[in-house]
Design a protein that fits this description.
globular; Glutaredoxin; single chain; 8-stranded mixed sheet
Length: about 190
Amino acid sequence: MNRFILASILFFGLAACSNAAEDDLASLARGQLIAFEVHDAPIAASTAAFLDESGAPVTIADFSGRVVLLNVWATWCAPCVREMPQLDALQGEYGSDDFVVITVSTDRIELAEVEYFLREEIGAAHLALYTDQSLDFALGSGVSVWPTTILYNRGGMELGRIAGPAEWNSDDAHRFIEAAIALGQE
């Protein structure tokens, strides 16, 4: 009986800590990130794949153990293009075994053109090239606005998203990313 009570206390205590941490994250979605919607509870990520620069399929599950900030964008989308240097800087500053910024282009142009645009026009040096020409991942993830940025926890669960552009080089965004990285490290 004592083991059951102890197990119950431990389970509910851990659940409360997780909810408290996610509540803390939600409280940081302010200022430049006021439109970021943190879910009440994490939701399962789409299992649909997008492609890496070699054409190999990749899913969110491939990034297990890392916090993922995934941005769906296109070269024809002016707000998307404006965000790219900021997302590149986030990857440069925070990219690690704990955190990664992934930008998934939904362009239907040749991969070489998307890569040229990303590297030469935008000047992205830290972002890997991922594509979703079929829109399987974007639509499977419920994306209907470009850009959309989705935050996943280390277990591949969606914590929240912002449909539309954000100021990723702001102090608000940096505090938010740092809190997201800290989730699950306690």
